[in-house]
């Protein structure tokens, strides 16, 4: 059965339309996959990184409050400001720690958070004692500089543990970013291959359509 000219044109264009549909679907899938990878990076690690940065900032200011108190022991106003700074930054510290407790996503992160909880409890207990009324300067100096488990030593231990939590989350963000780039390059390769196929199909379709139109005309003129 011979085909009409319209049927030949539609038959010629059908493969091209199918390739375009496949390419469009692949492009959408690529964008969704990359988008999901980017969201995963932020969702799983970004909150922990920010929490540890804020925790360390509060920790530094808590430590500064001890130093202000030691250096200003004869200045009531300075001692008052040191205690206010201590209390305010414990609020910030515990808020950041609470965020991290709810965002444990990596292997080993739970153990680090547990260790951070233990150090925090010790640090706050000794810090509250440091700022107790009628504590002699010698006792404050011993509480801050004393070993083992003085405030300064515990401060350094907290810095070390929080730094580990920060580092593993940053490393995971970098790994996820590299994975997203790998997916992008891989998917782009397939997309370019599909595009080349579409161009080839388009070229063949154009040639075939031209032949389908010209053959009847040539037959009529002969």
Structure, described:
- The chain has helices at residues 5-71, 76-101, 109-130, 137-145, 151-221.
- With 222 residues, the protein is mainly α.
- The protein has one domain (5-221).
SS-derived structural category: mainly alpha
Can you give the mean pLDDT?
Answer: 81
The portion of residues assigned to helices is over 70%
Radius of gyration: 34 Å
Shape: rod-shaped
According to DSSP, the number of beta strands is 0
DSSP strand content = under 5%
Count of individual domains: 1
Helix-strand pattern? HHHHH
Number of helices: 5
Distance from N terminus to C terminus (CA atoms, Å) equals: 23 Å
Taking the sheet with the most strands, its summary is:
none
Poorly predicted regions are none
Write the layout of secondary structure elements.
Blueprint: H1 5-71, H2 76-101, H3 109-130, H4 137-145, H5 151-221
From the structure above, extract its key features.
rod-shaped; 0% strand; 5 helices; mainly alpha
Give a brief rundown of this model:
With about 220 residues, the protein is mainly alpha-helical. It has 5 helices and no strands. The model has no long low-confidence stretch (mean pLDDT about 80).
